[in-house]
Amino acid sequence: QVQLVESGGGLVQPGGTLSLSCQASGNIFSIQHMGWYRRAPGEQRELVATISRDGHTTYADSVKGRFTITRDDDKWATSLQMTDLRPGDTAAYFCNAGIVDAMWNEADYWGQGTQVTVSS
Length: 120
Prior knowledge:
The chain has no helices and 11 strands. The protein has strands at 3-7, 10-12, 18-25, 28-39, 46-51, 57-59, 67-72, 77-82, 91-101, 106-110, 114-118. A hairpin with a 6-residue loop joins strand 4 (28-39) and strand 5.
């Protein structure tokens, strides 16, 4: 079956940089949209960034100019480069992807999440 696995979270000081990666695996035919979401304690999940199959990107206003989403379709992967991190970026970050499997079934998949903590 299809799975998404995130990596790269951790503790970073304000103003620091961190990169998250998400690797899809399984019987994948193609990946449509890919994206990153986050959920801070006591808050609802919010969109951080998305990237379409043709490379069109969208960002939450709070991260524009600081975060960059990319994708590598040869590796079934997406990354989120985060710079100038702020305490308000502290959250669990989740990878999301719309994937068509080898049986031509399309579904939305989520990773298990990776924690990002911005603190001095």
